[in-house]
Amino acid sequence: MDAATARQELPKTADQFVDQAAKGPWPAFRANGAIDAAAEMFLRGLYEDASDDELGDLSVEDFAALAHDFWIWRAERECEDQCLRIRRGVGVGGKQLDRDVLEIAGPDMPFLVDSVMGELADQGITSLAMFHPLAPSAKGKGRDSLIQIHMPRLSAQKAKDLLDGVRASLADVRSSVGDFQAMRKRMLDCADELEKAKSNAAPSDVAESVALLRWLAADKFTFLGSRDYQYVRDAKGALTPHEPDIIEDTCLGVLRDFDRYVLRTTAEPMVLTPELKRLVAEPTPLVVAKSTLYARVHRRAMADYIGVKRYNDQGEVIGEIRFVGLFTSESFTEPTRNIPMLRKKADWVMNQTGFAPGGHNAKTMRKIIEYYPREELWQVSREELLEMARGVLHLLDRPRARVFARRDRFNRFVTALVYIPKDRYDTDVRVAAGNLIAQAYGGQVESFQPQLGEGQLARVLFVIGDIDKTRAEPNLHKLDLELAALTRTWEDDFAQDLMRSERFDTGAREEVSTRFNQAFTAAYRERYTVDEALIDTAEIMSGRDDETIRARAYRRPGDADNIMRCKFYARGDVLALSATVPILENMGLFVDSEVNFELQLQQGAFHAPQRIHVHDIECRSADGKTIDLERAGALFEQAFAAVWTGKAESDGFNKLILSLPCSWREAALIRALARYRQQTGLDPTQAMQEQALANNTKIAALILAFFKARFDPHLPESMDTRLARSSKLEFMIESTLTEVVSLDEDRALRRISQLVKAIRRTNYYQVGEDQQPKSYMSFKIDSHAVAELPAPKPYREIWVASPQVEGVHLRFGPVARGGLRWSDRRDDFRTEVLDLVKAQQVKNAIIVPVGAKGGFFPKRLPARGAPGFQEAGVEAYKTFLRGLLDITDNIKNDDIKPPLDVIRWDEDDPYLVVAADKGTATFSDIANGISADYGHWLGDAFASGGSVGYDHKAMGITAKGAWEAVKRHFREIGKNIQEEEFTVIGVGDMSGDVFGNGMLLSRKIRLLAAFDHRDIFIDPNPKDCEKSFDERKRLFDTPRTSWQDYDKKLISKGGGVFSRSSKTIDISPEIAALTGIDKPQATPAELMTALLKAQCELMWFGGIGTYIKARAETNADAGDKANDGLRVDAEDLKALVVGEGANLGVTQKGRIAFARTGGRVNTDAIDNSAGVDTSDHEVNIKILVAEVIRTGALKEDKRDKLLESMTDEVGALVLQNNYDQTAAISVAQTSAVNDLDSHERFIQRLESEGKLSRRVEGLPLTGEFAALRGAKLGLTRPELAKLVAYSKINLFDAIVASKAPDDPAFQEPLKAYFPRELSKFESQMANHRLRREIIATCLANDLVNRCGPSFVDRIKEISRARTVTVACAFEASRRIFELEDLVDRINALDNKIPAAAQIALHQRVGGALRRAVTYLARNAGFESETPPSILDVVKRYYAPVREQRATIMHDLSRIERDRVDVRRADLVALGAPEALAEEAALLSPLTLSLDVADMARNTKWPVVAASTLHCVIGAELGLDALRDAATNMKLEQHWDRLVVRRAAGDFGEAQLKLAEAAARSIGQPPNDANNAWATEVAQKWLASLGQPAQRARSAFAELDGQGPWTFAKLMLIAAEFNALVAAVR
User: Fold this and answer.
1) In 1493-1507, which positions are buried (b, 16+ CB within 10 angstroms) versus exposed (e)?
2) Could you give the maximum distance between any two Cα atoms of the chain, in Å?
3) 362: Cβ–Cβ under 8 A, 6 or more apart, which residues?
């Protein structure tokens, strides 16, 4: 119950309280059915004492219960005097109360309550309440005093001590009260005796003494005890040295106890002290002084002593009567003129002053005496009083500090009256003054009585006890000076020293005087000297207005060399110790103590009032080592301020600041390097790195020196000198590392050192606009120079580190692009980015730049959803971008402009393009704004997709690109999803780009279900595709919609939209049928898992997350912890097709597993590459347009409209790439089993060159290839997608490194890359910064798309040509044979003929290219000293080939004609049109027209005649049959196949050489030459050759007649024909 409630329950009158108690459960209060009269008196007394503050939270019932128990105990007591007990408080109903109760019952007498409460105070016990009712005595006489005191709970010992103390106090009360009248009578008798006695005292003194005794007996003195003493004299009448004897029967009151002493605290001495001897000798008959007896009656104080001398008839002092007691309060208020002895003393003093009566001085002196401490006035002599009063009078005229000291006449103590100017008086001054006086007398302060009157002086009466009686009297003048120094305020000294201080100029002194007036608290002044305060003031004044904290490191005299004290000056709020201690500990310090003070600065001329908190922390080095404060102090101060204000981080790397020492930026540099190493996932922990650096500071210093030597732009050194100096430092580091014992420490230090060497650029030495170092650091790293990095290693990476953000940008070539991701993975975002960039590599295979990816982690974000969260992320993004651009070259007026203050250890590198990604989808304009700030040459091409660019979502380009893949999948299984309904389950919602756009790409979609991070949408049996489409479009067009906004009326029975936050979801029969869930309810996670495994035709991924893995993988392998609870195994998927519009929906192993079970899937990089392709087109278009504007061919204000006008055409160009690339995979998949060996060889080559890691890319290992070969399986589409990408990347590298892109043949392809509207800017295209890269990309794309991933390697093996030669031969071949037209006509048959027929037609094109490219690679002269251009080669062959195309059917041999018929029939059977089938079937033999063209040119024969002769020679010798056999032979071993392929080429070459020889021998043919003529002349020529020809023909006939051709037979016949060719030559 609280106090307020208790007070409300307290009855308003005593009658009500008595009535309530009488009716309550307390029978002891009643007698004969009514309230007992004694109890009523008791209760009324209780009620009168029961004020609100006394009861507190005690209820009236508990109060009454306590009273009832007290009343019963009082009745049962048996002691004659006071009985007392301490008990636990028990309330109503036996409830234990949280208090103890002291109860006393006994006869009523004076001083009971005061004495008991005094004992509680002496023992330090607080009373909660005290009640003192009276009641008729239980013994039948008088009244009982009943005392009940409520106290906090006491320990048993504390309770015992209290009982003992109260008993002793009550005993003294009884003694003093019982003998009161006897003691009073004894004092009056003494007055009478003294009045009659014969003495040597002056009569006036005797009269005053008698009057005083009678005045005291008139209730001016509380008697405690009295005792008579007899002085002992020797035979000669002289006093003996012994203490006077006690006359025992005279002892009264407390002095009945012989162990009580009056003038000392121990047993009375056996001899008289000199002071007592003087007392006896003095004529004064009466003495007033302080006794040594501590009064326990009435009030706690040293008892007053009244000594009255006794005389014999001769007037000799024979004894003494001693009274002890307390002056009553009336005696203190009585004017001195009415008090005997005091009035005489006062009059004497007044007479001695000589002041005129009534004058000012006389009145003031009288007032001084009147207000003199009354107890002191009794004891002071009149001479002492005169001297002191005069001194006080002078003080009133000129207030100042002064001390008046008086030694007790018995030399037991000293009283000191101290005067202090009131404005200088406080507790500290009082304590200091008391200690000063006590020290002077060799004693201690026993009591003090301060008085603050109306004047200017404060007065304190000190009693100094336990004094050194042998010590000489102190010099009071010196004491006055010392006291004056004490009362001189700290502020006085501060003001005086400020004016003398050289730390401030005149203006600053005035400002300090104003602003620091009363700024320093008493606690501050008590702890610090004025000199220290001036230092603090200078620190505070030197701080800038925006500087929230300053630090100062210092030592006090005597501090050990491992001690450092830290002062922190904070504006505004106090520094929490929980925040400061970790910072200091991270600097290698151990905090021993801390104090803090608040300074309130006043308003100044230019400053508002301010609050400054001064924190003083004592630290020591945690390792006990010396702190070099001279070198490290300022560095520490800067570092702490940097950490506190967020400029620096706080961790163990900061130990270097004091141990090296080094600056906080140097420590941050080491941290940045170590954090990069940690991001690799292969390095020791941060704790180990910190330990390694702390334990090896010499190496840490060398690493910093190594970094400085390489990158400090202010060193006046050439690059050669830098290299020499840094090499020397590198050697020193290596040498010092040999001394490191710990392998872990060695590894950590060595890798950081090696990282410095791998860095190519840094912004570390750049400054911002404020000329201060930038708040972040960036480092450009040659990844291949870093030994310990996970594969694949990028070409370069930029690491950005700051307290606000860390980020990394990985790129796999000089020209690379990729998005920047807002990562939520603090410690391994580089791993995340590396995983993404692998997919980006594949995705970028179709565009100019190779793969790149960036990721940044904002380290100081508010809670997600809190105000400022997004803004903080944007700032982190900007910082990351600035870090990238800081160390990237720029282009100005066609010249490379290196970044300022950056030492470059690499070549020019100006290309840096970024894009949007997860978390940064709307950030392109922000990035382009940073680009503009830097004047970056790419302008707003720096980040594609901005407000002036191609909006991917508005274009729907990413989804459309993926839809090309989806359409192809379905087309190849015989379904046109643009015309036929099909079922879909997806991940995403209609507000999203990829999911939303994707679900609007066909009106035939039956969307069964979808889910995103918020909701689950299920439409088990969608009926009307059109209405569903319209509703999806409505959601897409409406901003910020979710599945909850879907019109529920359109959802089929049993479906609905369910929140993922629901605990469970009811499973309808329809949902059960869709998902296979066999229980009435399921959790959202269970439902989504079931949907992923549900039957559908298309699984469409448009949202973030990895939902499908292989059964052999763990969830950890998937790397998406958020979706671990949903993820399913690919082997359990029932979907026919998976479309990955979003990244990482399926793991690579999951894709392969799905494909192995018959599912159709590519990779995310293939499916959603249209986004990056669009961005790349945007960048390259903007680069071109910028050049067009620069040359004046376009006005700048027309630019944006031009860009917008080309949106649709850009989309079409991009989608064509998606179409072609997925077609290439389909063609490769068809022949994957047959091509397995060449695929493995291709992978092995790339791996041996360090360009591919099959483990990283999920490609089969050697043993797995063997297993596939044994099972007659090829690679799956996901695996082929990787090979297609790497093939393009590898080919691009070779082309761009050659002169091929400069070939005039590529002017038209370059124009075709851009929208038609830009073709008029051909001259600017020729100067495009990325012209060569664009051409190389387009050529690589076309070659691989047409011929497959291993095509180049196969041609190179056969022809022994270089890669670029193969590429040039390809470009020439497709132009010579006009193959692009044929490809377009094949592609135009989508959904018109079966996809299998289209693939077969494409295979015929690829086969023809294989033979044509091989021939041209060997014979076109591309590798000659003066190679022809591609256009020269085309010109050489185009017309002859075209001429032969018209007559080819007439020129074919029987074998070749039969082969053509078979091919045509097969294509027709698959569904190809007759004409197209025949054209495709003729492609392979048509490639021989290249041979004929060379033959015709070399022999000068007409093309037709040469063709006929060439064909006849082949038929007559069987070379056409041999070529066909070699081409179609199936062999297990790669080398066997390679030999046979080369043999096929050799047969063709032999046919050509023999035909040329025949033509030369025959001479020019007649104009009417035909096949018959050619046959005749050929046979004659062959016959003329004699034995060589006969031998070759016989060998062919013999081998051909013995069954199918084998490898061995081909080798035998090849030898014969080689001999024949040699003979003909």
Assistant:
1) bbbbeebebbbbbbb
2) 192
3) 350, 353, 355, 356
pLDDT in tens, 354-366: 898 888 888 888 9
Q: In what order do the strands lie in the sheet with 221-230?
A: 245-253, 221-230, 317-327, 301-311, 286-295
Query: What ranges in 547-654 are assigned the alpha helix state H?
Result: 577-586, 629-644
For residue 188, how many C-alpha atoms fall within 13 Å in the half-sphere facing its CB? Answer: 9
Q: Measured at the alpha carbon of residue 1525, what is the angle toward residues 1521 and 1527, in degrees to the nearest 5?
A: 115
Per-residue model confidence (pLDDT) at position 269 = 42
Q: Give the tokens for residue 446.
A: 């026993």
φ, ψ of residue 162 to 5 degrees: the values are -65, -45
DSSP H helices in 614-718: 629-644, 655-659, 664-679, 686-695, 697-711
Q: How many angstroms separate the CA atoms of 1041 and 1036, rounded? A: 8
Report the alpha-carbon distance of residue 1369 to residue 1347 in Å, rounded: 13
Q: Which of 1480, 1383, 957, 1005 is nearest to 1170 (CA)?
A: 957
pLDDT-based confidence at residue 368 (cuts at 50, 70, 90): confident
Q: Determine contact, residues 119/166, Cβ cutoff 8 Å.
A: yes
Number of residues in the chain = 1625
Torsion of CA 1169, 1172, 1173, 1177, to 10 degrees: 170
Residue 1070, C-beta contacts closer than 8 angstroms, at least 6 positions apart: 1020, 1021, 1052, 1053, 1054, 1055
- Hey, which residues does 896 pair with through a beta bridge? 891
Structure letter (DSSP) for residue 862: P
For 298, phi then psi, to 5°, come to 70, -75
**pLDDT tens digit sequence for 623-641:** 999 999 999 999 999 999 9
Confidence bin at 644 (pLDDT 50/70/90): very high
Which of these is catalytic: 345, 780, 843, 853? 853
Of all helices (H) and strands (E), which one includes residue 1090? helix 1084-1092
Q: Name 1210's Cβ contacts closer than 8 Å, sequence gap at least 6.
A: 950, 1174, 1177, 1178, 1181, 1315
Structure-token pair, residue 720: 């050669």
Look over the chain and give the mean of its residue pLDDT values, rounded to a whole number. 90
Bridge partners (DSSP) listed for residue 252: 226
CA nearest neighbour of 551 among 464, 670, 620, 639 = 639
Which tokens hold the place of 970?
A: 């379905």
Helix (H, G, I), strand (E, B) or coil at 251: strand
Q: What is the band of 268 on the pLDDT scale with cuts at 50, 70, 90?
A: very low
Confidence of residue 6 (pLDDT cuts 50, 70, 90): very low
Q: Chain centroid to CA 905: how far? A: 33
In contact, 148 and 66? CB cutoff 8 Å: yes
| pLDDT reported for residue 181 | 95
Q: What is the mean pLDDT of residues 406-435?
A: 88
Relative to beta strand 1065-1066, strand 1081-1082 is antiparallel
Rounded Cα gap, residues 1524 and 1526, in angstroms:
6
Reading the block at residue 459, the tokens are: 């007065």
Report, as an integer, the average pLDDT of 418-438.
89
pLDDT score of 73: 92
Closest CA to 842 of 453, 251, 1279, 1248: 1279
Q: What is the pLDDT of residues 506-516, one digit of tens each?
A: 888 888 888 89
Q: Which carries the bigger pLDDT value, residue 860 or residue 1519?
A: 860
Concerning whether 853 is annotated as a catalytic residue, the answer is yes
CA 1135/CA 664 separation, integer angstroms: 58
Q: How sure is the predictor about 7, in pLDDT bands with cuts at 50, 70 and 90?
A: very low
Q: Which residues pair with 1081 in a beta bridge?
A: 1066
Residue 271 above 50 pLDDT?
no
- Out of 27-41, 129-143, 760-774, 1575-1589, the most confident range is 760-774
N- to C-terminal Cα distance for the chain? Answer: 126
Q: Are 1497 and 1507 in contact (CB under 8 A)?
A: no
User: How would you classify the pairing of strands 1108-1109 and 1128-1129?
Assistant: parallel
